[in-house]
Amino acid sequence: WSLSGGRIDPAPPPDAPAVPAESVAPPAGEGPKLAYLRAQVGKYPRDVALFETEPLRTRLIDLLAEQYPMLVESFGTQGPLSIDGPTLYAIGNKPHAAGDEQAILLVDIDRDVINVKLMNADEMRDFRERNEAVELPSDVQTTIANWEDLADDAE
To answer: pLDDT tens, 34-72?
Structure first.
């Protein structure tokens, strides 16, 4: 895969994550292009080949660039796609990494915006399309808080 026209720019974090958010603009067009994902709620990403569906795959590659493989690897152990209001999300962990490598995929279906959080033992990186944050469902807030507790204990 290659970075196809997108760019990643550091952006100041609104909630002071460990690493500044990185942003890329999604392709211009009419209507939410990711609305098709609603039909996948309740299913596991691996069962629906989520990271191979378009336009999600291309937009994730544009957003994450060289970090895209980390996202996919971090979904080796995964929860089902869930939805809370307009936010579709999935949480994954890299197998055999003792929770040290995790990923969260967030998609605001109504605004057609993707937000990815990649976490490892040292940092959490936040990637946002159009530098727009996606509202965090309570399950995601809990996952981030638990990761931060583990990171603090490791220091």
So the answer is: 999 999 999 999 999 999 999 999 999 999 999 999 999
104 strand-pairing partners: 91, 117
As given in the structure block, the two tokens for residue 96 are: 């055999």
Contact 148, 41 (CB under 8 A): no
In Å, how far are 78, 87, 130, 141, 151 from 134, measured between CA atoms? 20, 7, 11, 12, 23
- Identify the DSSP state of 94: -
- Beta-bridged to residue 105, according to DSSP, are 90, 116
| Separation in Å, CA 155 to CA 130, 142, 143 | 33, 20, 19
Instruction: Name the amino acid, one letter, at 85.
Output: G
Alpha-carbon torsion, ordered 28, 50, 110, 1, to 10 deg: -20
- Of the CA atoms within 13 Å of residue 112, those in its CB half-sphere come to 14
Round to whole Å and give the CA distance between 7 and 91: 25
